[in-house]
Amino acid sequence: MPKVQQTLKISALKLAAKKAYNNAYAPYSNFFVGAAALTKAGNIVSGCNVENASYGLTVCAERNCIAQAIINGEQEFQTLVIYTEQEKLTPPCGACRQVIAEFLEQSAVVTVVNHLEQQISWTVKQLLPDAFTPKDLV
């Protein structure tokens, strides 16, 4: 993808993740998160975290985002952007890293951004080295 087109896609993903962030349901932790992914087909899907009084039932933005794409018939992704308004950039939790490794290639980039315009990126392989994926089920 040409650099200009890639920059435009990342900007659109950041906006979609921030919009999803605004819909997050986090009355217990007040830790609001939005995520947006670019599918291999070029579509942007988003998700937010949804907490539950039974904390173990909380679902993170990254997993909701990927699930939304699957609901829409897409299972392959190019990249993922995660948005929070935390002072410290926060990487995905372990459960999200596992789901990300299931659906994004090891070389795909995951970027975390915040309201201060700070960002950090990792490849899926950096987030979860030696991930257990479908190829391990053979």
Brief account:
With 138 residues, this protein is of the alpha+beta class. The protein is built from four helices and five strands; from the N terminus they run αββαβαββα. The chain has helices spanning 3-21, 61-71, 94-103, 124-127; strands at 34-39, 44-48, 77-84, 104-114, 119-123.
Distance between the termini: 33 Å
Judged by helices, strands and strand pairing, the structural class is: alpha+beta
Q: Summarize the biggest pleated sheet.
A: 5 strands, mixed
Q: What's the architecture in CATH terms? A: 3-Layer(aba) Sandwich
What order do the helices and strands follow? HEEHEHEEH
The CATH superfamily title: Cytidine Deaminase, domain 2
Protein architecture, described:
This protein has one domain: Cytidine Deaminase, domain 2 (3-Layer(aba) Sandwich). It contains four helices and five strands; from the N terminus they run H-E-E-H-E-H-E-E-H. The radius of gyration is 14 Å and the shape is globular. It is α+β, with helices and mostly antiparallel strands. InterPro entries: CMP_dCMP_dom, Cyt/Deoxycyt_deaminase, Cyt_deam_tetra, Cytidine_deaminase-like. Belongs to the cytidine and deoxycytidylate deaminase family.
SSE layout and pairing:
Layout (H helix, E strand, L loop, with lengths): L2 H19 L12 E6 L4 E5 L12 H11 L5 E8 L9 H10 E11 L4 E5 H4 L11
Key attributes of the depicted protein:
Cytidine Deaminase, domain 2, 4 helices, alpha+beta, single chain, five-stranded mixed β-sheet, 138 residues, 25% strand
